[in-house]
Every structure is written in structure tokens, then in C-alpha cells.
Specification:
The protein is mainly α. α2 crosses α3. The two termini are 18 Å apart.
């Protein structure tokens, strides 16, 4: 648990919330495809400028497999940035996803 008493929400839970919103809200889905940072901002999520977000949509004929970053190929600074993406909403002062 973090210092402020909030339980960290893991990266997968954040993605699941975003996916559910996109599946239930066509306007949000389109905004997410067109401008991910702005769409996430509508949910109170601020993504640092140095982080790029790419949104792709699977179809019955196309399946995307996302390979995670290999920590052995990162500098310490890059590894810190990637590690921050595993937490969210004010649970960590270095968090990638903060409202």
C-alpha cells in the first residue's frame, strides 16, 4: 500500500477500465483512436509528453500481440519510466497515470 493509504491499481486494471469505456461509448472509442492522450485526459488520466500512446483496434481477422519492453535493453532512466506505468492514480508520485 502506498503512503497515502490508497491501494495501487495495476496497469492491467487501468487498461481494462479504458477498454470497457471504449466498448460502451462510441464517442470515447473514436476519440481514443484519434487522440489517445486527449481521450485519456477526459478520464482524468494525464500522460507525460515524453510518452507516446498508440491505440489499435483488433478485428476478427487481425490479432495484435504486444511484446513488453525487455528491461535488459533499457537504461536505468528508461526502466524507471517503464516501471512507473505499472501504477496509477496518485499511488506513486512518479506514476505515469495521474489525474
Amino acid at each position: 500500500m502506498s503512503e497515502n493509504g490508497k491501494k495501487p491499481v495495476i496497469h492491467r486494471e487501468i487498461k481494462d477500465q479504458i477498454i470497457k469505456k471504449a466498448q460502451s461509448d462510441e464517442d470515447f472509442r473514436k476519440a481514443l483512436m484519434d487522440n489517445p492522450k486527449e481521450a485519456l485526459g477526459q478520464l482524468g488520466v494525464q500522460v507525460p509528453e515524453k510518452v507516446e500512446i498508440k491505440v489499435v483496434e483488433e478485428s476478427p481477422q487481425v490479432l495484435y500481440l504486444v511484446l513488453p519492453v525487455n528491461p535488459d535493453e533499457l537504461t536505468d532512466e528508461q526502466l524507471d519510466d517503464v516501471a512507473a506505468a505499472g501504477f496509477c492514480f496518485k499511488c506513486d508520485p512518479h506514476c505515469l497515470f495521474t489525474p
